[in-house]
Amino acid sequence: MQYFPAALQNLADQFARLPGIGGKTAQRLAFHVLGMPLENAQEFAESILEAKRTVHTCPCCQNLTDRALCPICDDDTRDQSLICVVAEPKDVIAMERSREFRGVYHVLHGVISPLNHVTQDDIKIRELLMRVGEGDVREVIMATNPDTEGEATAMYISRLLRPMEVKVTRLAYGVPVGSQLEYADEVTLSRALEGRQEI
Fold this sequence. Notes:
With 199 residues, the protein is of the alpha/beta class. Helices cover 41% and strands 14% of the residues. The protein has seven helices and seven strands. The N and C termini lie far apart (59 Å).
């Protein structure tokens, strides 16, 4: 027996496809959207479509942007020879909150995770190697999360970079093992940056 109109059920099903959204939360969101004034619902739908149309990856660092280059890569005051490698675009935001890092970033868009069928070919490692291979990079900071997949990814990339004669460091463990960078506070991230070590 169908309890909701098909359109409402379809809306709830679409919300349920989002990460971290279960069936009950999806239903609540669907009912909330249904309760919005039509113009607000239209704005909500348009903002999703606008983001899909205009946001793309920066050809240099792979971060998300709506410009030719992201604002960080396009900033002449940033140290282009110092690259901080992070797993996801949200990690760039976490690192920038510390206001300590003045280099540039490289976003992998994931980590190596055999259990989730993510291999080194599925993330942006090749683009990083090409960047470092151009010869203007003096240090690469591995800032993947300090969990099993993040550590494995950092070690794999450091082995690939070793022949390129570039210094490879890892964030110090001011960031608790098993935590996520996006939840770390500014002081913890600052200390982790200051205490980074060569790997």
